[in-house]
TrEMBL record:
It comes from [Ruminococcus] lactaris CC59_002D. This is Small multi-drug export protein. The chain crosses the membrane at residues 21-41, 53-76, 108-136, 142-168. Keywords: Membrane, Transmembrane, Transmembrane helix. Pfam families: Sm_multidrug_ex (PF06695). It comes from the Bacteria. The keyword Ubl conjugation does not apply.
Length: 169
């Protein structure tokens, strides 16, 4: 699924905007986030030098996070007041909270691990949503998410530029 989305962004934005902007946009998108951004940045797609791709991907992934941490519960409360959006919000909350056990138990380090280990359903967006729903304060949640995103950047750089780069580069 993520490779289809990455291909869509690269195909539809390629030649129209710079490679770094494509990476930045992919890194901001839920589901893809930094993981998809660094895969797209690697030799198999955009071939952006690693030293440029890492900070662009990290910044792109982190940009929405303060807004999620500070505003999502207010937005969800408003959305729950509407007949049409209430089921969507309840489904999102249920899905996020189903993955919250380790974050709730270990808080800071649980959030770091959840965001940092690149598995399906994890990442900065979901980590921020869970942190907000659990009521974890911004000053604790945001640094944990930053560390997690940096950990994910290390792992994904090895995968994108090492393993995949070795195959396609």
């Amino acid at each position: 699924m993520s490779d289809v989305l990455i291909n869509w962004f690269v195909t539809n934005l390629g030649g129209k905007v710079g490679k770094e902007l494509i990476l930045f946009i992919i890194s901001m998108v839920p589901i893809l986030e930094l993981r998809g951004g660094l895969l797209a940045a690697g030799p198999a797609f955009l071939n952006i030098p690693m030293w440029r791709a890492i900070p662009v991907g990290i910044i792109g992934n982190l940009l929405p996070i303060p807004f999620i941490l500070l505003l999502i519960t207010k937005i969800f409360d408003w959305m729950k007041g509407t007949k049409r959006l209430k089921p969507v919000v309840e489904k999102l909350e249920k899905k996020a909270m189903s993955q919250s056990a380790n974050i709730e138990k270990y808080e800071f380090w649980g959030l770091v691990a959840f965001v940092g280990i690149p598995l399906p359903g994890t990442g900065a967006w979901t980590g921020a949503l869970i942190a907000a729903l659990l009521g974890i304060r911004f000053r604790k949640a945001f640094p944990a998410i930053v560390i997690g995103v940096c950990l994910a950047a290390c792992i994904m750089t090895i995968i994108s530029y090492g393993i995949v780069g070795g195959i396609f580069g």
